[in-house]
Amino acid sequence: MSKLRAQNTISGKEGRLFLDGEEMAHLKNIEATIEKNKAAIPIMGRRMEGHKTTGASGTGNTTFYKVTSRFIKIMLEYIKNGQDLYFTMQVVIDDPSSDRGVERVTLYDVNFDSVKVAGLDVEAEALEEELPFTFEDIDLDNALNDTF
């Protein structure tokens, strides 16, 4: 019988984020989700609707420590010049204390939805900037071990 060993759980701190190949060391957190688009299908003789998947949508959110103006500059490229920039983002999970392996998820055509262009907070120990985004494709380059 398989059993989970505590040391094989993955630490949320053991990872990296790359944006177009550049490590984003000021990352605080990231989450990306794929949501299926479904159509409701009424079926004769059934009281419950069926559901057919008709596509999918990729969205995410990331928070960085405010140490650069890079994201404001990205938004200004669109506002001033009409150039909407898209990126490749790679999220790497690599906890050396776990024997589950390394996971690399690559998101393609990442586009930021909004950028905080100014902010101060007298109670904040460190300023942060949250960036919601969309993405249009994904690859799983390495996967964590499935067997225990």
TrEMBL record:
- Gene3D superfamilies, per the entry: Phage tail tube protein (2.30.110.40)
Please give the superkingdom of this protein's source.
Bacteria
Q: Name one Pfam family in it.
A: DUF2001
Protein's name according to its UniProt entry = Phage portal protein
